[in-house]
Amino acid sequence: MALREVLLEQLKSVHDENSWFVCFNYAVRELEEPQAVEKLQDQAHSIAEIVHHLYFYNERYLSRFRGEEVAERPRHYDTFQNHGQAQWHSRVTDFQMVMTMFKQELLFCSQEKLEMWAETLSNLFMHNAYHIGQIVSIRKRNGWWGMNPVVKG
Questions:
Q1: For 36, what's the count of Cα atoms within 13 Å in the CB-facing half-sphere?
Q2: 20 and 153 Cβ atoms separated by less than 8 Å
Q3: Whole-model pTM?
Q4: For the segment 5-14, what is each residue's pLDDT rounded down to a tens digit?
Q5: Exposure of 22 by Cβ count < 10 A (0-12 exposed, 13-18 middle, 19+ buried)?
Q6: What's the rounded Cα separation, in Å, for the pair 145 and 137?
Q7: Cα–Cα distance between 101 and 98 in angstroms, integer?
Q8: What does residue 118 show for φ and ψ, rounded to 5 degrees?
Q9: Cα dihedral angle (70, 71, 74, 77), rounded to 10 degrees?
Q10: In the prediction, which pLDDT does 137 show?
Q11: 110 Cβ partners below 8 Å, 6+ apart?
Q12: For residue 149, which of 18, 63, 100, 114 sits 20 to 30 Å off, Cα-Cα?
């Protein structure tokens, strides 16, 4: 499998196609804002905060990948907070759009650029998978997850 195909496969796995683990679209499916913002005392972050964090990093790395300037943030900038006050469904849509744009960039970028960015993108996609797993764990712990198997492997 060529590098482009590997990265596109990783992107699909974290964005919109269940594989060895649950993709983002499935992890947040049918989740409403009251559930997304709920945070138990022993829980570090709510699902909404995790999605803000994912959007923050993926949007920044997409901009960097495109060669766009990315504003620096203060050292202790909290990437889990909703700084723009985006509504839950809007933030989910924002993240989905970033993933779709990433797919387009990966499809059409040069092989040289792909090779230069491969390690960074692979790590970004693994970072996404980790946090998507947190979303699924929170949903399971709170009883917001069905019993049907959704992954293969």
A1: 21
A2: yes
A3: 0.91
A4: 999 999 999 9
A5: buried
A6: 9
A7: 5
A8: -55, -50
A9: -60
A10: 92
A11: none
A12: 100
